Amino acid sequence: MILKQAAAQAVFSTEKMGKVSLGAGEHLYAGLNCFEPGQQHAAHVHADQDKLYVVLRGSGEASVGEETAAVTVGDVVLAPAGVPHGLRNSSAERFVVLVVFGPPPKKD
Amino acid sequence: MILKQAAAQAVFSTEKMGKVSLGAGEHLYAGLNCFEPGQQHAAHVHADQDKLYVVLRGSGEASVGEETAAVTVGDVVLAPAGVPHGLRNSSAERFVVLVVFGPPPKKD
After folding, report:
1. Residue B25: which of A45, A82, A84 has the closest Cα?
2. Residue B108 confidence (pLDDT) above 80
3. Which residues of B fall within a CB distance of 8 Å from A5?
4. CATH 2.60.120.10 fits A16-33+40-68+77-97, yes or no
5. In angstroms, what separates the C-alpha of A16 from chain B's closest C-alpha?
6. Looking at beta carbons, which residues of chain A come within 8 Å of B103?
7. What per-residue confidence (pLDDT) applies to B60?
8. Pairing relation of β-strands B50-57 and B85-88?
9. Residue A108: per-residue pLDDT
10. Measured between alpha carbons, how far is B95 from B88 in angstroms, rounded to an integer?
11. ipTM greater than cut 0.90
């Protein structure tokens, strides 16, 4: 699957962060987290999944464990299983982040 | 781990594609493939790993299965386990691609 300009598939909601599924294999899942200004995905933990973020559009703030930093297009965040992580759109523009899970979320 | 401007960690070689490891958890590995003009990573298969590419710098050509397309910054490629895939720098500029494996390559 070749996805030109993945960020163009972003879906936004005024209520909460938008989520878009891009694709998955047996071992990896790829999607988008889409933030209006001020929205966040509060710090949370996945016990059995590693997560990788790649900022595709805009800028915001990322946290992983004790680390917090401003992030922008081209920045990469890796949160190993068990480590709390979150994202926040602290900017005045929309913020779109590619999210990769390994392994994919369970369908139940 | 928060990596500002991951593409800045690229390492190039005149002999062949440069490879850089960025980090890994138990389930995911992240690195860079770094291409001088004309270099390629010929189509190949991983039987038990999914691979995801995100173009971070420059432009080139990606193939996945029967699909081939020009790719540039912000494009995403997903190659499920068992599907041949490759990259080629068909441009006159350096080309840097984030590579994600799930699960990580075996250390042996």
Report:
1. A82
2. no
3. 74-75
4. yes
5. 24
6. 27, 102
7. 98
8. unpaired
9. 55
10. 9
11. yes
What is the domain partition of chain A in residue ranges?
16-33+40-68+77-97
Query: Tokens 């759109």 identify what position?
Result: A89
Cβ B76 vs Cβ A22: under 8 Å: yes
Q: What is the pLDDT, as a whole number, of residue A106?
A: 81
A59 φ/ψ sector (left φ>0, alpha ψ -120 to 50, else beta): beta
Give the distance from residue A49's alpha carbon to the nearest chain B alpha carbon, in angstroms.
7
Strand partners, B44: B85
CB B85 within 8 A of CB B43: yes
Cis peptide before B37 (omega within 30 of 0): no
Of A89, A83, A49, A17, residue with least CA distance to B2: A83
Closest CA to B3 of B103, B108, B102, B96: B96
CB A92 within 8 A of CB A41: no
CB B34 within 8 A of CB B87: no
The set of residues, in sequence order, having a beta carbon less than 8 Å from that of A27 and lying 6+ positions away, is A102, A103, A104, B27, B48, B49, B50, B81, B102, B103
Smallest CA–CA distance, residue B98 to chain A, in Å, is 9
Where does the pLDDT of residue B93 fall: very low under 50, low under 70, confident under 90, or very high at 90 and above?
very high
What is chain A's percent helix, strand, coil content, to nearest 5?
5, 55, 45
Q: Which residues of A touch B51 (CB under 8 A)?
A: 28
Identify the sign of the CA torsion A75, A79, A80, A81: negative
